[in-house]
Amino acid sequence: MSKTIKKNIDIDSHYQLTQEQISFYQENEFIKLKNVLSPETLAHYRQIIWDKTLALNTNTLAMEERSTYDKAFIQVINLWQENDRVKEFVLGKTLARIASELMQVSGVRLYHDQALFKEASGGFTPWHADQQYWPLSSHKTITAWIPLQAVSLDMGPLSFAAGSQHDQTYRDLAISDDSEMVIQKAMNDYPIECAAFDIGEISFHSGWMYHRAPANKTNETRGVMTIIYMDEAMKLKEPENPNQENDRRCFLPGIEVGQIANSPLNPIIYSQAF
Question: Gene3D superfamilies under this entry (predicted)?
Fold first, then answer.
């Protein structure tokens, strides 16, 4: 029995990508992959991620009293520092190697993780591009969006505006009601990819891929863990806005502009050199 459990709970194995999948990501900068993690693996880590997220949550206002951003989800960052089992999950090599191979880089570091729990009747997540917040020197960034359960269309799965990664018009807009009005109109020009997620299905998207999530119309919380990876050779750039300055302080402590982003919070998770 112990051997079976050990075999089924695996966060370090090699998920074999096809050249077609790598080429798709290189062209589109997003992809959904089925059966990346087994149901047993997700069940093993799900409860500790869930418990830690709710314990550390500070978003406790009634839904009707929250801003649009706060209605979208409970957000807890760098859970890997709070619990050894969560750390084991976040530093797993399976997802990190996928990230490296999709981006076609020699290895990846952790930027940070985020638990994003959309509560029952939680609001929509506005259109945005993550890298508006990141003081990083290149576009070689990627987020793994890891549902902790199957996500139906009514629960608010992640949606992508295919081709929007090339649109530089709105890159100075942080998430707000005003930005949603402007970006929503612009995203109508792109094909929208929105579909349910099976258990074990994980998406990956680049920092400049515009994405959103619909509201959660169910009476069940949608639990998602995300891990943000960056090229192992990534350098800190001069922050261009207050959000990037905040990220510099929070996630890149002690790193100077032009230096490799290798603070203690940014370990290499996978590298071809290892």
Answer: q2cbj1_9rhob like domain (2.60.120.620)
